[in-house]
Amino acid sequence: LDLPRKYCRYYFMTSRGCTRARCRFCHVPEQGDEKICMAILRTYIKIKEPGLLKRAVQIFVRYYRGVIPGVDFASQVLNDLLVALLKNCLLQEVFWILNVTVEIKTLPTTDVLLKVFEQVASLNLRDAVPTLIRTFRKLVDAGMFLELDHFDYIVKLLHQLQVSSWEISIVLNIKSRYVFKELFAYLYPLPSSQHCKEKRDWTKLGTLYLNARTGCECFEDFQKLFLSIAEILTKDSESDRPEVPFCDFADAVMKNSQPNEADRLFIGRTGISVMYSYHEVLQWMKGRKVLDKLHELQIPFTLMKGLIGSGRSASRCQIVNKAAEIFLNCGSLDGATRVLRESEWTTNAPLWPCDKMDILNRLNLLHTLVHKYLSKSLYRQAFEVLQNFPGLQKHSDIVDVSQYSCLFNKLINACFENKSLGVSSSAVDFMLSKKIAIDFILLRRLITALGRSSLWSKARTYYKTALSLGCYPQLQGNSYHKLLKIPSYLSEVEMLLAIEIFLVSNASYIQSPMATSQTLQIILKRCEDQTVQDNSVYQMAVERLILAARLSDPKLLLKHMTMNVNMEEVYSLELSSALKWLQENMKWAEEVWLF
């Protein structure tokens, strides 16, 4: 932390804090130093130490009880601090922060509030319920908007705690009295809205909405307002005019007022409806303008449920699918990936259920995205998409992940062809962690490429894994037999790793006084399809074996002995060089190769 001299460095920059009875330096950022306050909080959150998190709460509470949030205030810091406190079970501190956010009218996200309820329920903290409900009421009165499903979820969690019917009724009263009270006024007559449509004055329609949203007390009125405006804006999809009415309407609502959470929700859900209307008639560029406007206004539409006409609702997965398809049809791979990333690649979850068709459409969408990234040689982006296929993350998708093997192998092969070793290595790690079948030829190529790039530690790790998977035949004579048979199709890197195992397995014999130079033998086995007459391929294998011995550090010495009845070369491994190799490498080699 780069702090001005007026701030106590012991308090802000040590775990113990300031122990002086009277300190002449500041323990709270002064007014105007909000950027410093945010930097301190970010640092404490990153460290995750409970004592520092408690100090972060003290700093936040003391600073914002005297200061209104300014341009340097970061909502993400507030949300991250609350989540960090929850992870450390500092529930009292969470309530302190939430009460301050009500006072300064800067509220956390709905997800954070739901996490508080979830933690109280999961830990069965019955005594915390009264405080939680009081805080909940304050947040809703201050403008926090929750969808009806959120209220139902909160009631479900309270039932798990076996709270009294009186406490449940309090939450139900909050739901009926406050959720829509501060969102919308009584619906203006539809002809007024129709007039805006006929005059194509979309800014005036936005003003109409702002004037109408100050006192709507029932859900029916809210529905009428939402559906009437959404209907007017979606009807434009039938025209060939180049402008997109939703964009002017959204600007009027969000830029010409002080929008609250309800406005953001309304614009988001209306934008979803408009996006669907353009998607249905294949007006991709207009659909993209809607999505770009939502992104510009920082409307998290991927976290919302939408009404898509005739009262039908759409799942979160379906909404994200449609948005990504629009970007893809406009040629914007980054836009499609951004939408998926913002939705955390979620398909099916308890709060966001979807059907099998949504998951199938997501799968087809991601397949298309991966192929387009591969065609542009954007391998890291393709790998990011692959990692988030349904069933590969911590969602409740029931999907057979083995079907992804071909696509992963295609990525790895493309990476090899373009010398992108880092991505191919990461992809192999991911496949192994998810038990997705990997093409043994590609795994061998990775081991060889790592060895040739002097990344021997990784090469050995993958070679060991490949052995356990059955990628290589059992290296006969490998275990304490003093005879090693190496298949001739191996690369020089694979041959060297096989020799290393051979050395470690026979270390006690090599280091004994009874060892003789003639007893350690290596036979270079011919492949089954190799004929004696076709000797050029086998001769190349001989050269690879000699190269493998030279690659070793220290070098190993091979001495040609004879050719056996199968016309296979037989070598002896010089005992002195083997002994020297063990003396210099046995410490790590024993840990690596003694399975």
From TrEMBL:
Q: Tell me, what is one Gene Ontology molecular-function annotation carried by this entry?
A: zinc ion binding
| Primary location group | cytoplasm
Query: Where is it found, in Gene Ontology cellular component terms?
Result: cytosol
Q: Where is the signal peptide?
A: none
PROSITE patterns to which the protein is assigned, alphabetical:
ZF_C3H1
Keywords, ordered alphabetically: Cytoplasm, Differentiation, Metal-binding, Spermatogenesis, Zinc, Zinc-finger
Q: Name one GO biological process term.
A: spermatocyte division
Residues annotated as coiled-coil are none
From the Swiss-Prot or TrEMBL record, state where the protein is found.
Answer: Cytoplasm, Cytosol
Q: Zn fingers (C3H1-type): where?
A: 2-30
Question: What InterPro entries does this protein's entry cite?
Answer: TOPAZ1 (IPR038952), TOPAZ1_dom (IPR029435), TPR-like_helical_dom_sf (IPR011990), Znf_CCCH (IPR000571)
What Gene3D superfamilies has UniProt attached to this entry?
A: Tetratricopeptide repeat domain
Q: Describe the task this protein carries out.
A: Important for normal spermatogenesis and male fertility. Specifically required for progression to the post-meiotic stages of spermatocyte development. Seems to be necessary for normal expression levels of a number of testis-expressed gene transcripts, although its role in this process is unclear.
Name of the protein described by the UniProt record: Protein TOPAZ1
Organism of origin: Manacus vitellinus (golden-collared manakin)
